[in-house]
Amino acid sequence: MFSISKSNFGKLEQVFLQNDTTGEKAGIIPGYGATLNMLILSKNNTLLDIVDGSPNYEYLIGEGAEYCKGMILFPFPNRICGGQYIFEGNTYQLPINEADMQNAIHGFAANKAFAIESEKCTENNAELTLSYTTSGHDEGYPFICKIWVTYTLTADKGLICSTKISNADTKNLPVGLGWHPYFKLGNAGIDELWLKLPTNEELLSNERMIPTGRKKVGIKYKKRNKIETTAFDTGYVVDNNSKNTRTTSLKDKEKDIKLRIWQEVGKYGYNFLQIYTPPHRKSIAIEPMTCATDAFNNGFGLIVLKPNESKHFSFGVLLD
Questions:
Q1: Which residues, including other chains, have CB under 8 Å from residue 312's CB and lie 6 or more apart?
Q2: Which of 57, 107, 124, 134 has a CA that sits 20 to 30 A from residue 66's CA?
Q3: Which of 52, 41, 37 is nearest to 285 (CA)?
């Protein structure tokens, strides 16, 4: 059986999707970027806390917000160079929220309040759907766009996050989508974990972390390799030619635990991936993205929605 419960999270509310049989649980904070704040999954009848979230409200709006822990990246993931872009002949200026690089980063929905659209439990899953609509008056993004996020905790497929984006405006709009969960396998940190990426192409960037247009073909983590002291803030093009989904894996060989983060690929899919290691190295961000960094300028994966047009995207997390 599955259940849904709620508890106070400072000034906000955390919603829990729970498998009452196994104890598996997902914690979501709708009022702050539809944040995935907790994920506990079972392996060999042992519950593992695999998401590095925010322990309290003060942390969430402080360090948690700084690192976008578990938050949605919308209407663009990663950086826009100088916060400026041209779309259909018009120039737009986004707020600069990465002062040291003088870029706009991660959109503006990470701290927005998402409304609860529906809650549903069955014998096989618990499901929460949230929504948010842009105002059409956001600085640098004068477009009306609605987004629905559905989290589903399942009996046998872990957690699935599905997103629908719809153009509610009378004009075309540019859009990109990403997510920023941080994963861990225990409390020892990530250096002893093994990583395998669904790509062999790295996007090379300049000193402001903006893609140069060049790629590095042939990367170490195409095959499973130990992370050790590797520092990531790196974008990749995901192989989307052979399968409907592609998977990043994070493995603790000593405990024989493997975490799989799959992303749906295709013409309009999560065809890009960002990997980031925070300074504390207790967790690693594995970020499915529909477009590359600075896509509003370089067009790499940029989605243009016509009025009333919608697109759907999915990724998921499970333990092997």
A1: 162, 163, 164
A2: 134
A3: 52
- Give the C-alpha separation, 269 to 174, whole Å: 15
88-101 per-position pLDDT tens digit:
999 999 999 999 99
Locate tokens 């870029």: which residue? Answer: 103
The reply to whether omega before 30 is within 30° of 0 (cis) is no
Instruction: Give me the amino acid identity at 226.
Output: K
d(CA 113, CA 55): 19
List, for residues 146-179, the tens digit of each pLDDT value: 999 999 999 999 999 999 999 999 999 999 999 9
Tokens of 164: 């629908």
> Could you tell me if 37 and 50 are in contact, meaning their C-beta atoms sit under 8 angstroms apart?
no
- Are the CB atoms for 304 and 268 separated by under 8 Å? no
In the chain, alpha helices (H): 57-59, 65-66, 295-298
Helix, strand, coil % in the chain, rounded to nearest 5:
5, 50, 45
Report the C-alpha gap between 114 and 82 in whole angstroms.
28
pTM of the model: 0.96
Is residue 274 a contact partner of residue 236, using CB atoms and an 8 Å limit?
yes
The rounded distance, in Å, linking the Cα atoms of 270 and 259 is 18
Max CA distance (Å), the chain: 57
Closest CA to 200 of 240, 239, 231, 249: 239
Structure tokens that stand for 13 in this block: 């509310």
